[in-house]
């Protein structure tokens, strides 16, 4: 669960790169025939790849040394289980990078994007059970938790380490990734 929190907050160092006050470069690229969709994709791709690199360097070794939710150590996973872990972990990183771009576009400038990113990620992770077990919350919050992006990411990562999850959160992760990307595209198109 803390992995989801760290993944959601991992976009904070990138705020200075992606949150802009000046849209002159975007206007110049539009005048040269580069659409908003291509611009946003070419911003999403390096952000996604940098999150993959950070996850490979930071999260996987930490998870391998600590132990997963069912007390199995990632170092003891078979090659098939590792494949499953990577195939489920990568879409979560894609959703997180799309979430980051959406927040950076919605924020507008560095300060508001930083605050918006921090508090939205923190609130989503709090309600999704990243700080406390979900069963400690009232039933209404438990019902909402499973539909939040962080709840879907938590469920997907639980599936990745072999825990049985009653729903298929990977579909929700991919839908949220598309929704965040389209939201960022709409915000950029209206600026």
Structural overview:
It is built from nine helices and no strands. The chain has 191 residues and is mostly helical. α5 packs antiparallel against α8. The longest helix has 31 residues.
Oligomer: single chain
The run of helices and strands is HHHHHHHHH
Q: Estimate the strand proportion.
A: under 5%
Shape: globular
Distance between the ends:
36 Å
Task: State the share of residues found in helices, binned by percent.
Answer: over 70%
Number of helices: 9
Radius of gyration: 17 Å
* Average pLDDT number: 83
- Which stretches of 5+ consecutive residues score pLDDT under 50? none
Biggest beta sheet attributes: none
Q: Compute the number of strand runs.
A: 0
Counting helices, strands and paired strands, the structural category is mainly alpha
Compact summary:
This protein is mainly alpha-helical. It has helices at residues 2-9, 15-18, 24-31, 36-66, 79-107, 110-127, 139-145, 149-160, 169-190.
Annotate the secondary structure layout:
Elements: H1 2-9, H2 15-18, H3 24-31, H4 36-66, H5 79-107, H6 110-127, H7 139-145, H8 149-160, H9 169-190
Helix pairs in contact: 1-6, 1-8, 4-5, 5-6, 5-8, 5-9, 8-9
Please name the defining characteristics of this protein.
mainly alpha, single chain, 191 residues, globular
């Amino acid at each position: 669960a803390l992995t989801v929190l760290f993944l959601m907050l991992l976009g904070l160092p990138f705020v200075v790169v992606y949150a802009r006050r000046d849209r002159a470069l975007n206007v110049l690229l539009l005048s040269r025939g580069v659409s908003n969709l291509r611009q946003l994709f070419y911003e999403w791709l390096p952000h996604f790849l940098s999150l993959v690199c950070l996850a490979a360097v930071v999260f996987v070794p930490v998870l391998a040394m600590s132990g997963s939710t069912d007390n199995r150590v990632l170092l003891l996973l078979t090659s098939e289980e590792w494949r499953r872990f990577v195939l489920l972990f990568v879409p979560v990183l894609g959703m997180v990078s799309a979430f980051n771009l959406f927040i950076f576009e919605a924020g507008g400038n560095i300060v508001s994007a930083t605050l918006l990113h921090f508090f939205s990620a923190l609130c989503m992770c709090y309600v999704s059970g990243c700080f406390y077990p979900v069963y400690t919350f009232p039933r209404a919050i438990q019902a909402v938790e499973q539909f939040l992006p962080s709840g879907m990411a938590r469920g997907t990562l639980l599936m990745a380490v072999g825990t049985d999850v009653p729903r298929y959160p990977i579909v929700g992760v991919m839908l949220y990734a598309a929704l965040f990307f389209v939201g960022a595209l709409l915000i950029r198109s209206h600026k």
